Amino acid sequence: MNKDFWTQLKSQLLEFLFEIGPELVYALVALIAGIFVIKFVMRLLKGALKRSRTELSLKTFVESLSVFLLYGFLFFVIGSILGIKTTSFLAVFGAAGIAIGLALQGSLSNFAGGVLILVFKPFKAGDLIYVNDNLGFVEKIDILYTRIKTFDGRIITMPNGNVSNSDVDNRTMEKYRRIDLDLKFSFETDLDEVRAIIIRGMNRHPKLALHLPVDVWLDEIGEYQMKIKARCWIESVEYWPAYWEQLEAVKKELDAEGVTIPIPKYSINREVPVGENV
Q1: What GO CC annotations are associated with the protein (predicted)?
Q2: Which CATH number covers residue 183?
Q3: I want to staple 186 with a disulfide (CB 3.0 to 4.6 A). Which of 48, 144, 242, 262 is the partner?
């Protein structure tokens, strides 16, 4: 009985191999050929991305997504050769997609945000941005997270889902940025004289954008003093050093010309009760 069982099993196995043998050979050939084709396509894609000077984060994302799609198509072709129905493939991928989507809702949101950032480029690595109450230079843009480095040396990692849904103030996207200095003077100060002194001081800055205006205007008349706004333009990457340098330059120029910035004065009047000796 055992001998008949093994003989029957051997017969069925051989029959199965003869029946599916050609498909296995074709599938193996398709797998080997497909791997070589994928490697060739990826080599062409990497060369094209390199020549286009695509940003590193976007390049990595495109390469990873391309590999996933190409191998997915290859497995679909192999499954079709082996006789697996297309509807089965779709059902498996659909069920897997739903399960992964439910398990990784936050990560998918960050993934979608990363795609939007890499495609529309509201900022890039090296830009100074203000987002979610954080100001810093963009260190790295991953597909899920963005890292910025603050002026005091902190690294802040933010989910791309939050970043893509927030207002992003990119302070280095434009080449030039305007410096605004708010200065206060007494009403006795000669406005034209002060304007000439401030402009002279600001014009001495070596990195000033000479093709853009340096101007000084009376901005506000208060109760006890007048407010003057002095403006000039500088390259965006030099903004903060230039801001402090221009503030010092204006102060030194005013000191050299003997113009002082008013100090608020307060008068205190004390009422003396009747009969008290003063």
Answers
A1: plasma membrane
A2: 3.30.70.100
A3: 262
